[in-house]
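User: Can you help me understand a structure? I only have the sequence.
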Amino acid sequence: MILSEWTVTAVGSVAAAFTTVAFVPQVLRVWRLKHARDISRPTFVLFSVGLSVWLVYGLLISSIPVIVANAVTLVLAAVILALKTRFDRRPEQSAMP
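Assistant: Let's start by predicting it. Here is the structure, written out as tokens:
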């Protein structure tokens, strides 16, 4: 089966949108709760490195869905890591929200 370039790009764009938007609730949760104790720093660092490599790959093949999805997801992952660093440095609060 041979699909048009438009169809292939559309499928990639839909996949990119879903996988990227999936990180928004995590960012909002960490921000709202003001803690990220349940977030694994090594996992998010490795994930961010992987996103960076996917971003480079997208640039090399000039794929807009790959570029945009990985750039946006990399920003969201970086925000989660930054919030984790910020909130983990604060003294432990006695009561959880």
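Now, to help you interpret it: The chain has a mean pLDDT of 89. The radius of gyration is 17 Å. Let me know which part you'd like to focus on.
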